[in-house]
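Subject: sequence -> structure tokens, single chain

Hey, anyone have a minute? Need the predicted structure for the following. Not urgent.
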Amino acid sequence: MKNIFKAFIIMILSITVCLHMQVIVKASTYTDLGIKKDVLISKSWTVNFNKPLSSTTINTTNIMVIGENNEYKDISVSLANSNKSVIVKPTTNYEPNKTYTLIVTVNVKSTDGLPLPKEVRMVFTTKSEPVKYKIVLDAGHGGSDPGAIGPTGLKEKDITLAITLKVGSILVKNGVETVYTRTTDNISWSTNEAQNLQARCDISNKAKPNYFVSIHENSFSGPTASGIETYYFTGSLAGQKLAQAVQTELVKATGKLDRKIKTTSGLYVIKNVDATSILVETGFISNPEEEKLLATQAYQYTIAKAVATGILKTLGITNIVY
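Reply:
Had a minute. Here:
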């Protein structure tokens, strides 16, 4: 019997497996390709065959990836190279430091109906992607400083924290290292406003992120003021680009009044961080209608998703996982 593998080549971007199609009844055993270690969590595999494949047999039933607990990983499979290659991609990244098995079953057939002689399996273990991007997220106010307070007593500090943590969760899912100035309401900073704000700047300057994003709620003496606005440091083209991306996503997601992006040289955290920075006013907590929305988990997530999307798109990440 011919060896079913013509070649097995480890490449930089893919592992290529060349499989020969033969007229053989389904085997009770499978061919084991061994273990591949330290595979990046975004890894795509290329499986090459010696004959064009029948497109009706190329699906996630006949080609699959199984996790450690026999759970099926969501993947996409597509033909390439004149139907002689199959590209296997995870729809979302694999988890780091986990073991998976790529399986090609005998139900994969060539255009003339020839199957694989045996099922093929390859085990691989994953590692985290190298850190490319880092973001510092700043939940406005906190501790003894409640920030603005809505008509029903809703505190700005609570809403900014809830939104910020949701933004961070999305960024992490997309491989972006995320640093928070605070993750709870229990902060040890001085009650002195300048020292409080400087502590946030110090965290950012030590982390050396791509962007610093401060999240706040707006307030006005009257109850009718509404909408969303985003500030960036005067003269910063990178800040302007980030601010516009976040503002655009927020307005699109919420349908709220677009109060536009605005320049500032006076906001402390915008002025005193080294990184490209923006401050987002995601709504008016003084407006009864917006306060009611801001109090809900669903609307907080809508805002967080929009902020994260604006950040990720600015970083050049478009295949976003939520």
